[in-house]
Amino acid sequence: MRIVKEFSKGFTTQLPPFRLVLGICPTLAVTTTVANGIGMGLAATFVLICSNVMVSLLRKVIPNKVRIAAFIVLIASFVVIVELVMKAFFFGLSQSLGIFIPLIVVNCIILGRAEAFAAKNPVHYAAADGLGIGLGYTVALAVIGAFREVLGQGRLLGHSVFGASFEPFAFLSQAPGAFVCLGSMLFLMNALDRYRLRMKPAPAPREELPEEAPREERGLQPAGAAGQGG
Amino acid sequence: MELVLLAISAILVKNILLAQYLGNCPFLGTSKRMETAIGMGMAVIFTMALSSTITWLVHRAVLVPFHLEYMQTIVFILVIAALVQFVEIFMKKSLPTLYLALGIFLPLITTNCAVLGAALLTVKENYDFVHMIVFGVASAAGFSLALILFAGLRERFRIAHQPRALQDTAIGLITAGLMSLAFLGFKGMT
User: ipTM exceeding 0.90?
Assistant: First the structure.
């Protein structure tokens, strides 16, 4: 049953980019529409699963000293695959995502999971972890994308939502709107957490602590401690 | 004149951090203290100038003649990783003062997407050698400018009262949004 837990943590305790504050750049850049968000999320999911599986398979072969370089080469190979496939079959999407597809290489979620999880765990857990984190990331990007598309352009998936009389809130579809939107969402998540914690009966947190602690060690970083790169 | 305009546009109008969304993780990660922000800024200027030059040369001299443009991503990231490692070793031996000043920030630059992003943008825009150098240095200067300004703002947060849920990254992102709004004003210049 551990495999289910490794999968579902991508939606709960380690939901990127809210719980793991990693992979901020694509989150800000491509979420102007829902379609872009989903496309970026799925591309990252594919790379994440493949790199997790390969890193996990090769974890006993790769010497410890050169492991980061080896991980980057593995990730870069899968990114090239995604890049070529997208150019061939989803040309419009690949044009609108632009340089953010090659930049999946330096997305710190992927290197982070390779280093923190896949390099220490067997293949099936690594694959479940990649799938869970990847889909969690996709959902998060789609939600931010929906918010920014509906309010910023008055449309959802290209269809008009509010009718012609709606004046779009253009601020949200530009760079400043992206920062403010992500910041406010982070704030709402934090506020909700604090509220839920306060509502819980007193003994509950003590029961959960021993279970939470090892998960924290295995994971990358607690939310709020922004990582480096991507 | 055209070069001056290119530099101004890369520093202010199309600021790599606030308008192009590149390099946001080190932006949030190293801006809590002024010293780390300055260290990171200097390290980025140094590496970005070098890496844009080398990736430009590799692209023109190796990838294009052999029709290997699709290998761009792998080759560029390898060049940047090797370059960062090399610069670190070189500095440790011959420029120990600078090495101590930049310290931990050098290895982190490998995964800074602003560096790879600048290299990719240079190739995409098809700049010649002089334009490429100006663009690389100006982008890096824009990165440092935004990072140092942001660190100055963020240091103030330590003495200010703020809601617990808003602390750290959330308020950081909203502040960055307001800074980005200010930089958006430069768009009228072009």
Answer: no
Distance from CA of A214 to the nearest CA of B (A): 24
- The C-alpha atoms of residue A51 and residue A74 are separated, in whole angstroms, by 6
Amino acid residing at A155: R
* Cβ pair B22:A179 closer than 8 A: no
Sequence-ordered list of residues with C-beta below 8 angstroms from that of A218, at least 6 positions apart, any chain: A116, A117, A120
Burial class (CB in 10 A: 0-12, 13-18, 19+), A54: buried
A22 interfaces chain B, CB cutoff of 8 Å: yes
Residue showing tokens 């502040």:
B175
Q: In this complex, do B177 and A224 lie within 8 Å of one another by their Cβ atoms?
A: no
Among residues 78-107 of chain B, which lie with CB inside 8 Å of chain A?
A: 78, 81
Torsion angle in degrees (nearest 10) through CA of B71, B73, B77, B82: 20
- B8 lies in a domain? no
What's B77-88 look like in SS3? HHHHHHHHHHHH
Type of residue numbered B1: M
Query: Are B173 and A194 inside 8 Å of each other by CB?
Result: no
pLDDT digits (tens, 9 = 90+) for A163-221: 767 777 778 878 888 888 888 888 888 888 888 888 876 544 444 444 444 443 333 44
Interval A15-24 mean pLDDT = 75
What is the domain count for chain B? 1
For residue B106, being part of any structural domain is answered with yes
What's the rounded mean pLDDT across residues B61-74? 84
Helix or strand (DSSP H, E) at B96: helix B96-102
CA distance A92 to B12: 30
- Where residue A229 falls (left for φ over 0; alpha for ψ -120 to 50; beta otherwise) is left
Q: Is residue B54 part of a domain?
A: yes
| DSSP H or E segment with residue B172 | helix B169-184
Cα–Cα distance, A218 to A163 (Å, whole number)? 49
Specify the pTM.
Answer: 0.80
How far is residue B155 from each of residues B37, B77, B149, measured CA to CA in Å?
Answer: 11, 33, 10
Q: Which residues pair with A159 in a beta bridge?
A: A156
Task: Specify whether the CB–CB gap between A145 and A38 falls below 8 A.
Answer: yes
Judge whether B24 lies within some domain. Answer: no
Segments making up each domain of chain A, as ranges: 2-201
Write out the residue range of the structural domain in which residue B86 sits.
34-140
